[in-house]
Amino acid sequence: MKASKFTEAQKAFILKQGAQGSPVAESCGKAGISQAMFFNWKKKYGGPLPDEIRRLKALEDENTR
What we know:
There is one protein chain. By secondary structure, this protein is mainly α. It contains four helices and no strands. The radius of gyration is 16 Å and the shape is elongated.
């Protein structure tokens, strides 16, 4: 499979622009990607990361104690 030409930080920056209210079409045009690629990235990277989920679970456990 071909490696992506975008780093994780670049993908996060593009997704962040879309989340801040910038039109998706505009963000995609500037980055040179399709809107389908944007939404695929959003599905994959949009949620909390596994380490964030673990940290949140640990904090919830601590609060219940």
